[in-house]
Amino acid sequence: KGVWLPLPLLDLADPAAIVRAARALGVTHVYLEAGSSGGGFYGRPDADRFLAAAHQGGLKVIAWVLTRLDSVPTDVALSASIATYRTPSGDSFDGIAPDVEFNTYADDVRTFSEVLRTDLGPSKLIVGVIYPAGSWTGRRHPVAGILSRSFNVLAPMAYWHESQQDFSTGDVYDFISQAVVDVQNAVGSSTFPVTVIAQGYDTFGRNGAGPSSPSGAETLGA
């Protein structure tokens, strides 16, 4: 079980406290916001603060990078530099998760994923963040099969609470299960690793907070 960690949280809490809370909740790995196409490796200072504490606490840390793929060479270079970065303490990220949701054209996605894998070598963990393969965008721009040739894991953003209604535990369980099956069907393998990004925010609220956040029953289903 993992959790997404946006950088503003590190300004509000001590890294060691975050690690203790994560471990108490059974979290094994953290996706730490690290950079973006427009901003570069802006998360370097926070990586320096967090990686050592996370590793000392037994947490794996995967760098989350918002890649727009407007310039494929630029995003390859950015992702590779983050994936191979070492902090002053000698710690490095345990993997990298490029977010492939802005430019989903096949040629750009294929080039980005293949060159990044070549640059990082065969053993570095790469997690591809994608739209669900069964969604409208996932069907119109089928990138899962392309990314599966170079990336180790695919992470569909399976957000079910796009309407202001309550869903049962079973409803969400079925939705998440289908998201996994859709990815595996798209890549042609029933054993390809899929790590679902479940929803933890209010689509209709300010900054993701509000009364339409998923309920406890929905989260349990996910």
How would you describe this protein?
The protein has helices at residues 7-10, 15-24, 44-56, 72-83, 106-120, 136-140, 144-148, 169-187, 216-221; strands at residues 2-5, 29-36, 60-66, 95-98, 127-130, 153-156. The chain is α/β, with parallel strands linked by helices and 222 residues long. A 4-stranded parallel β-sheet has the order 1-2-3-4. Strands 5-6 form a two-stranded parallel sheet. The longest helix has 19 residues, at 169-187. The model has no long low-confidence stretch (mean pLDDT 95).
Arithmetic mean of pLDDT: 95
Which quaternary structure do these chains form?
A: single chain
The geometry reads as globular
CA-CA gap between termini:
11 Å
Helical coverage, percent range: 40-55%
Spatial order of strands in the largest sheet: 1-2-3-4
Compute the CA-based radius of gyration: 17 Å
Please provide the count of β strands.
6
Order of helices and strands: EHHEHEHEHEHHEHH
- Summing up helix and strand content along with how strands pair, one would put the structural category as alpha/beta
Beta strand %: 5-15%
Largest sheet properties: 4 strands, parallel
Q: Counting H and I runs of at least 4 residues, what is the number of helices?
A: 9
Low-pLDDT segments: none
List strands and helices in order, with pairings.
Elements: E1 2-5, H1 7-10, H2 15-24, E2 29-36, H3 44-56, E3 60-66, H4 72-83, E4 95-98, H5 106-120, E5 127-130, H6 136-140, H7 144-148, E6 153-156, H8 169-187, H9 216-221
Parallel strand pairs: 1-2, 2-3, 3-4, 5-6
Helix pairs in contact: 4-5
